[in-house]
Amino acid sequence: MSNDIDFTFSDLIAGYVIDVEADRGLVHLNTSDGRPFTAKLTSTTTAEMVRNLGDGYVDATTALTELLQHGRLIHAYGVFYPADGDGGTAFEAKHILLFGKGHDEFRFESPSWWINQISRIADFYLDDEFGPGATTFDYRGYRTDLTMEGTRTGAARQETDTVSRLVYGLATAYMMTGKDRYRDAALAGCHYMIENLCSVDRTEQVAYWYHALVRSADGTERKIFASEFGDDFDAIPCYEQIYALAGLTQTYRITGDEKLREIIDLTINLFHRYFADRGTFPDGTPRRGYYSHVDPVTFDPRSPALDDGTRTNRDRKNWNSVGDHIPAYLINLFLATGDKRYADELEELCEIIATRFPDFDNTPFVQEKFFGDWTPDRAYGQQQDRAIVGHNLKIAWNLTRVNNLRPHANWVTVAKRIAQLMPGVGMDPQRGGWYDMVERHTSPGERFHRLVWHDRKAWWQQEQGILAYEILNAVFADPLHAKYARESSAFYNGWMLDTTAGGIYFNVLANGNPFMLGGERSKGSHSMAMYHSAELCFLSAVYQNLETEEQPLDLFFSPQPGAFGGVLRVAPDLLPPGAVKIMQVWVDGHEYADFDAANLTVTLPHSTAPQHVRVRLAASAVTFSADTLENVDGTARIALAGSLSPHRLPVLQRAMEDALTAGSTRIVLDATDLVYLASEATRYLAVLKQQRDFTLQVDGAAGQVAQELCDSELNQELVR
């Protein structure tokens, strides 16, 4: 038989431990789809814990055998040796990646994981673009192109969408951390974009965005209007205008800056006036949707200039021109304003997607390219009749989000159908993670949908997989969705983070090793800045930590005087009604009580200066929270609130472990808002103090809490 595997090769296995034969050094695994593998541990096998950006290496080699409990998810990288005696293929593991100390612990589900990650990513970009520790941000020095290490190249190009993606990430980092540096950099970027990359036509009441600005070393500048990228060349693609709003809208959400809102509204006018299809079918039914491109001179989507024989953008629609409005700016604009117009548009776009895009009778994948009359276009550019896995996942994610606002049974059906199909055709069940572009159909005799370009995995498509299954699990509580969410997050956090240079890899190979050729070697390029990685940090904290794990989440806002008509809306995303509530609010460092916990609004006090607003959100079912207020100079301060029953003890355990892992030698528990303390909790604290070297202090204990501490005699060991 030809193509026999008669050579050694290295590869990755992602699987669940089924059994360990310690005396023989064998670990038996099952992959995500249930296929058995046996890995042999050798004298040179090493093991480590997954680490976040900024974390040091944590060795687990010496304790590996004890850590390989039944049911634990591990990633094993090693060497295959074919036909090694018994006719099978031997696999020797050389590197084992673990995701937590306990078999059911995943470090990327701790409350601080995503907050720390987004802060590290934001610092990576700010330090590389503006200088280490910069607190002033002159975007004249910004450059789109960055090397793998983050250094700027000789290119003098500033692309509008990559500036916007960076600004989105910085605004999101501020929302998660409250660090002024991120807010200031986001605002500076917004105003730079408006002043240098945006054109406002007051006569037509529209704003449109240049593709790029080239700043030469001699101080001259050249603006580029029509796109110079791939299939979009010499046209104005709708998605570029859409992503120009991502940064402005997220920054508006935290500041209420009216200048930003004006430009956002004028750009939306551009979509409605020139990109929207206002035509009808012969029977009078509206065609609806947005064209993918317009002529840069006439703004006509059906201009003959858009069809030059090699680029067929005349009278076309696609996923990006219809669907990208939803996550890039529309949801965030609705969250900031509560304006019914944006809810109506979200509903219309989702109805178009759920009606026009599914093609399940012919293929597991949605149709993504169309002519203006919604006839499928299966010969467009590079895509042809192919599917982008991440777009399918993105549809499932966004239909689920908007369904929480405007319920439609058909949207749920489509989202769940995509979620059911994608693991079998777009996921890598051997190694974890999600592939890129695949053929929409298999040929006779083929088991697998063929990969079009490569078997590499892009960072943004991993994001779509994680968020799709996290929100599906959060809303519908399906164990299978929870499984795929966790496996997707394990691959991303295990392999997409550049823990050496910083930032996120554009692509990794199927086996998790970084791919470092061409534009995909970059940390800044036409496609990559901070948008997807920051969006993942924020919404994973919302879907997994806040909703599923019921861990409190603090969000930060900096409303300008008079912003939002005096009412700050703080809903983190489109979640099921009543899913979360406001627990506490602080304004300029002082606790503040004028808020509507259920409706997620804060009535702002009158001020002539920008205010610093911190809002603590919790799942509505939460009865207990343990929130780390600060961790400075070896002292961690953790606020306890509610009723600490045995069922909620893991919440306290996670907070304590995070503090000790971060190097705290003194932990202060603020029990002012704690109304009940179970004896199991006091015994846990006593055992932890016995096992770990730290001092413990409890402040504000009263009533039953103080009595429990006294009865347990733990109070005798407390620092006064």
Automatic annotation (TrEMBL):
This is Mannose or cellobiose epimerase, N-acyl-D-glucosamine 2-epimerase family. The lineage of its organism: Bacteria, Bacillati, Actinomycetota, Actinomycetes, Micromonosporales. GO terms for biological process: carbohydrate metabolic process. GO terms for molecular function: isomerase activity. Gene3D superfamilies: 1.50.10.10, STAS domain (3.30.750.24). The keyword Cell membrane does not apply. The keyword Isomerase applies. Belongs to the N-acylglucosamine 2-epimerase family. Pfam families: GlcNAc_2-epim. InterPro entries: 6-hairpin_glycosidase_sf, 6hp_glycosidase-like_sf, AGE/CE, Ssp411, STAS_dom_sf. Keywords: Isomerase.
